[in-house]
């Protein structure tokens, strides 16, 4: 019957989500959670942070604005996916900008590795939002994702005055 099939699909989805979280932790993420993509909050006004060229990639990297698309186009791209795997790395704040870059790169490499594992398991239609532009992937800032509201929805801390840095990325999938 239809309801039995729906229950089986729901159980399968929960098992898949638990396995993704477990795999993320095994790869070295501090925290991971799966949430409904509809819970992401997009704030087009955040695009100003890209336009201020704080990372130096605006109008240079094709994964960055304006080349990557408008804030609305990117929001619509994200909403094509049902699930969002939120990935977090927490580290003691070294107060060293060179170390920040290394830590962010490590976080993005782990995100890429997890996406590759997902693809190998048959989850082939994915969208990656990185912590800062990485290869051909746009960052959460380019998508204008409200990181605090995302963290709240995923049950994670974002901005805290506790001496810790928190890097986030996401893998969206259906």
Structural commentary:
This protein is α+β, with helices and mostly antiparallel strands and 174 residues long. The mean pLDDT is 92. Strands 1-2-4-3 form a 4-stranded antiparallel sheet, sandwiched between helices. The longest helix is centred in the N-terminal third of the chain and has 26 residues, at 2-27. The chain is 43% helix and 17% strand.
Which short descriptors sum up this protein?
4-stranded antiparallel β-sheet, globular, 6 helices, single chain, 174 residues, alpha+beta, 4 strands
What sequence of helices (H) and strands (E) makes up the elements?
Answer: HEHHEHEHHE
Cα shape: globular
Largest sheet: 4 strands, antiparallel
Whole-angstrom Rg? 16 Å
Please bin the fraction of helical residues. 40-55%
Average of per-residue pLDDT values = 92
Distance between the termini: 23 Å
Strand content: 15-25%
Secondary-structure-based class equals: alpha+beta
Spans where pLDDT lies below 50 across 5 or more residues: none
Number of strands: 4
* Helix segment tally: 6
Spatially, the strands of the biggest sheet line up as 1-2-4-3
Summarize this structure briefly:
This protein has 6 helices and 4 strands, in the order αβααβαβααβ.
Please outline the helices and strands:
Layout: H1 2-27, E1 31-36, H2 47-51, H3 71-78, E2 83-92, H4 97-120, E3 126-129, H5 140-143, H6 147-154, E4 164-173
Antiparallel strand pairs: 1-2, 2-4, 3-4
